[in-house]
Amino acid sequence: MLPSTLLIWFILGEKWNLMSATQAGVLVSIATTPFGWSYDFVLLLLPTNQLLVWLATSSLHFGERLVTIAMLLGVYLAYYLQRIASPSELYFYWVPLAITVIYGWTAWRCARSAGAGTVRRQR
Asked: How far apart are CA 54 and CA 106, in angstroms?
C-alpha cells in the first residue's frame, strides 16, 4: 500500500487531499481485513468525525443532513443492539461496510452541493 500511496502523492502533489485519502484507506483496510475484530472499529471514528464536520460546515441541504444523521444513528443503534444480543464477533462484518456507504454517499452529496466536483478541503 505504501508504494501506491507514494506514487499517487508523486503524481497528484498538492492537489491530493491527504485527509480524505487517509480516511478512505482506513475504510478500505477495515472492510477488507480477513478477520472481523470489532475492537478495531474504533478506527471508524476517523471517517465518522469527517462526516460530522461535513454536516456542520458543508452546503448540504437540510434533508441530506437528516438522511446522513439518520443513517449514522441507525447503524450505531443496530450495532449496539446486535452487540447486546450476540457477543460473537462473527456477525459484525457489516458495520465498516455500512459506514463506508454512508461516507461515500455524504462525500458525493457534499461534492454536488459545493458544485466544484470535489469535496472541499477542511483546514
From this structure: 8
